[in-house]
Specification:
single chain, about 190 residues, alpha+beta, globular
């Protein structure tokens, strides 16, 4: 299975990219993806593709990467969106110089720029990120409870299995992490 890393440049590439992402988040089901990003109908696929293109074109810091398998007709078998900032894009959260959604190539770029990296991880992703030098930084929960919820809302809560959680992960600049020695950005400095 010869794999090739490719930087996305054409809007036409988003059909295969979105197909890959939708398939990967469908099994096992990533409930956050389903809730925030994708209606699984054909119309939902088109809406998602067009939205991702618009977001990509509007963000000068965005870089979509795909991995294609050349043995099966250059099928996209992996994709990642990286947003790389050399200055803090969040005025309130000074500890976030780089935010990323999955890919080792993005870690290489963060290392090249000597930047720390923050990501969000699913249950499966957490183990992968820890193996790549990321440190668990906390868990976020999305609660579905709503006062006087409609039947449709209750159906959505049941289908999504709320509360939904995801993990915050951090990797120091250069990946140099020593337990008990490396200062974590969310801990008070001595």
């Amino acid at each position: 299975m010869p794999l090739q890393l490719h930087r996305v440049s054409s809007n036409l590439e988003f059909n295969d990219l979105v197909q890959c992402v939708c398939e990967s988040y469908a099994s096992p089901l990533n409930r956050l993806w389903r809730l925030f990003r994708h209606d699984p109908s054909p119309a939902g696929f088109i809406e998602l593709r067009d939205r991702l293109i618009r977001e990509f074109r509007a963000d000068a810091h965005a870089c979509w990467l795909t991995v294609v398998d050349t043995d099966i007709g250059d099928k996209v078998v992996g994709a990642a969106l990286w947003n790389t900032y050399t200055e803090n894009p969040y005025p309130v959260f000074e500890e976030h110089p780089v935010e990323a959604e999955w890919w080792p190539e993005g870690v290489k770029e963060a290392d090249r720029l000597n930047l720390e990296t923050f990501i969000e991880a699913t249950d499966l992703g957490k183990l992968t990120y820890e193996a790549c030098g990321f440190v668990y930084a906390g868990t976020n929960y999305l609660e579905g409870a709503k006062r006087n919820a409609s039947p449709e809302w209750k159906d959505l809560e049941r289908d999504m299995g709320t509360p939904i959680h995801m993990y915050r992960m951090w990797r120091p600049a250069g990946g140099k992490w020593v337990e008990g020695e490396t200062q974590l950005p969310w801990e008070e400095k001595d």
